[in-house]
Design brief:
Length: 587
């Protein structure tokens, strides 16, 4: 079972960590918010924000007017004055009529600004997520789990909650300014009691609920882990079924759900303890203003309407002063969301800087039209523990030439390809290669996109185009004609390609993409592992005849004759390169 986040056994130094976290959270909130209001949509965003602030000010002004109109109305009622009653009632109804459109547009502008913010922020994060292949580098990151949830759910929650809390705080401030004078005119003693009451209540509520932020952070993480496990089962249903792995997957899902439920139970306990205090605090606030002003009414110092006005104003101002108390549960969840988005934002910045550093260290200003892949003294290490896989690797490969990389498992064969692709950060030395759009990598399990067969075969550059005749010719050459029968010859038909095609067919689709795209170099990582010898031989013969330079990773000895040179890697980090003609044939 997954471990709990130690909410009940926190070490004594947690308050220091919390202060540091709050400081970091404020910095992250400022960076994220400033980026939006300084973006290309700043004029529209600032326009909505100014409108929202003006409507918030108008809302408080109307509430103050309603307070006075209500007090006069109640006073006329107690005096049994029909003329004054209907006159004050008309004023009171007038303030209500004025409040309706202000309230409607206030809500509408808030929702429009939140939607605009979410749209921009999600687009911005998605752009940075794919920039420099950060989506690849973030895999397995210890500080950023489930970036998909952060970009989708956390962004939505952040934008709506940010505006909501901003407006709550702004309304509280303006309410405080608008109503404090009303209370002061009734009783200065009442104002003093209210301030002391609010300060004491805020301090106690923080003491009771201070661990809720960390608990909510863990809850986001555990819920995302549970959802990801469900998606993983769906995506790997066939493999799980073949392995009869239902019991193992069921246990894993059960443990993840149990962890989420256990953490949520701790949140509920904290909210219960906080609820005892906040409910007591709110109920007592109903009695305090009446207890203070009732004797004044009995002595004839104020009218009865002032009693009801004092009670309403006291509750309104106390709510403004007690913002942390009344919103503590929502604020703790919101701060946890800000921390998750902020850590993703910071990590994307770090990956941008890391990509620039790696490119500077290992790239020798490759020319766009270069027709050579050259490695000189390139040492490849694992990114985290920096274990050397390949030491000072050097070779040069021109177009129309080929190389196969072989060696025992774990010697770094695929890492060489990842380094050439720019996906592997743990390398230093010299690397020269053509522009990225002149390279193509064929993994062991090709990526099948959603869409029609036309989109599938032209991925990832459908706009470069190819005639239907060219597509059909390539499909025929790679022995995929039966796929056309399954879609009834319609290249525009959309199907579930992952489930429709076997792994061998998916690998032939990858070769069809290669021949349609015609790059200068191709890199094949066990790209024919699911194919029979006949199909493998046919595809390698085609790639040699195409004039495309290529590097292969494989274990089959039968692959060697289709290449010019053989690079053999050793677990010690050493390597050997030789011409295939000099390599002894398999006995």
């Amino acid at each position: 079972m997954a471990e709990n986040p130690r909410p009940e056994n926190t070490p004594p130094d947690e308050p220091i960590e919390n202060r540091q976290t709050l400081k970091t959270t404020r910095r992250q909130f400022w960076l994220i918010s400033k980026a939006f209001f300084a973006s290309e949509r700043r004029r529209k965003a600032r326009g909505f924000l100014i409108s929202l602030l003006l409507l918030a000010l108008a809302t408080v002004a109307v509430q103050v007017l309603m307070s006075y109109a209500g007090a006069a109305f109640m006073t006329a009622l107690t005096k049994k004055d029909p003329v004054a009653f209907w006159h004050t009632l008309l004023k009171y109804v007038g303030t209500i009529v004025l409040a309706i459109p202000i309230g409607v547009y206030y809500r509408w502008v808030e929702e429009r600004l939140a939607l605009l913010w979410r749209e921009w922020m999600a687009q911005h994060l998605i752009k940075r997520y794919f920039n420099n292949r950060a989506y690849f580098r973030l895999r397995g990151s210890e500080s950023v789990d489930n970036p998909d949830q952060r970009i989708s759910e956390d962004v939505r929650n952040f934008t709506t909650s940010s505006l909501s809390f901003l407006l709550i705080g702004l309304n509280s401030l303006m309410t405080l300014i608008g109503f404090i004078g009303v209370l002061w005119l009734i009783s200065g003693k009442l104002v003093a009691i209210m301030v002391v009451y609010a300060i004491a209540g805020t301090a106690i509520s923080i003491m009771i609920g201070r661990k809720l932020v960390r608990l909510h952070y863990h809850q986001y993480e555990k819920e995302a882990d549970f959802r990801y496990a469900l998606v993983r089962v769906r995506d790997n249903a066939e493999s799980i079924a073949f392995y009869r792995g239902e019991k193992r997957e069921h246990l894993d899902l059960f443990n993840r759900l149990t962890a989420a439920v256990a953490n949520m139970r701790l949140i509920i306990i904290r909210n219960r303890n906080l609820g005892f205090f906040t409910n007591s605090y709110n109920y007592l606030a109903l009695v305090l203003p009446v207890a203070v002003v009732a004797p004044m009414f009995m002595r004839g110092e104020i009218e009865f309407g002032a009693v009801t006005q004092a009670a309403g104003a006291f509750g309104t101002v106390l709510t403004a002063l007690s913002l942390i108390i009344t919103q503590f549960g929502g604020l703790s969840a919101y701060l946890a969301g800000v921390q998750r988005l902020g850590s993703l934002w910071d990590q994307l910045d770090e990956h941008d800087a890391e990509e620039e550093r790696i490119a500077y260290e290992k790239t020798n200003k490759p020319e766009e039209n270069s027709r050579i892949v050259r490695l000189e003294g390139l040492t490849i290490c694992t990114p985290v523990v920096m274990r050397t896989l390949v030491e000072k690797l050097s070779f040069e490969l021109h177009s129309n030439q080929s190389l196969i990389i072989m060696g025992a498992s774990g010697t770094g064969k695929s890492s060489v390809l990842r380094t050439i692709a720019g996906l592997w950060p743990g390398a230093c030395g010299l690397l020269e290669r053509p522009a990225a759009d002149q390279l193509m990598f064929l993994p062991q399990r090709p990526y099948m996109v959603e869409g029609c067969l036309h989109d599938q075969l032209l991925y990832p550059y459908p706009d470069r185009g190819a005639t239907d005749e060219e597509i059909l010719a390539v499909v025929e050459k790679v022995n995929l004609s039966d796929i056309l029968e399954r879609v009834e010859g319609d290249l525009g038909r959309v199907v579930d390609w992952n489930n429709m095609l076997s792994l061998g067919e998916q690998q032939r689709v990858a070769f069809a993409r290669l021949f349609l795209r015609k790059p200068k170099f191709a890199f094949l990582d066990e790209a024919t592992s699911a194919l029979d010898e006949e199909n493998q031989e046919q595809l390698y013969r085609m790639i040699r005849e195409s004039g495309i330079g290529f590097i292969s990773v494989g274990h089959r000895e039968t692959l060697i004759p289709f290449h010019d040179r053989l690079l053999t890697l050793d677990r010690s980090g050493s390597w050997k390169i030789e011409d295939v003609a000099d390599h002894p044939a398999e006995s």
